[in-house]
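sorry for the late reply, my laptop died twice this morning and i had to redo everyting from scratch. anyway the thing you sent over, i finally got around to it. pasting the sequence first so we're on the same page, its 68 residues, then the predicted structure underneath. double check i copied it right bc i was rushing
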Amino acid sequence: MVVAKASGVAAERLIALAKSHGVVIIDGEPAAEALVSLKIGEFIPRELYEVVAHMLVFVRTMDRTRRP
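ok and here's the structure:
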């Protein structure tokens, strides 16, 4: 389920905050474009499950490599 999204100035602030904390930003990814089109509270469509799962694995891996 989509729980948050931003555009314009709010998105720029969110991206800046993420970068300041070392979060990897992937821009222009077709899956990201599809996710942005969803509304808050809308469920992620089945056709994006695999892509989102890969994103979550990537985030989890990054989190584990950054911990001491």
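Residues 8-66 form one domain.
thats about all i looked at so far, will dig more tmrw
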